[in-house]
Design goal:
With 77 residues, this protein is mainly α. It contains four helices and no strands.
Length: 77
């Protein structure tokens, strides 16, 4: 896969690769963060933000676009 340029955003190919490498532990982290944020009365944006932060703590190797894609994959799965 060619290197991604940050200004170009998230590519479809990278999204497909993310789906195949989504590990169950990361999915649990995202689900828990979303559930906790919802239980705390956070709106959709803040739920997403908190889940993104949880992903980046658990997987610092993921860039923000990949982390957002992971959150969205779990949320809309």
């Amino acid at each position: 896969m060619p290197p991604r340029h940050p200004a170009r955003g998230f590519s479809f190919a990278a999204g497909c690769a993310l789906i195949t490498r989504m590990d169950p532990d990361l999915e649990k982290i995202i689900r828990q963060a979303l559930e906790d944020a919802q239980a705390a009365g956070k709106d959709h944006i803040n739920q997403t933000w908190l889940a993104l932060q949880a992903v980046q703590r658990a997987r610092p190797d993921m860039n923000p676009s990949e982390a957002l894609a992971a959150v969205n994959l779990v949320r809309y799965k």
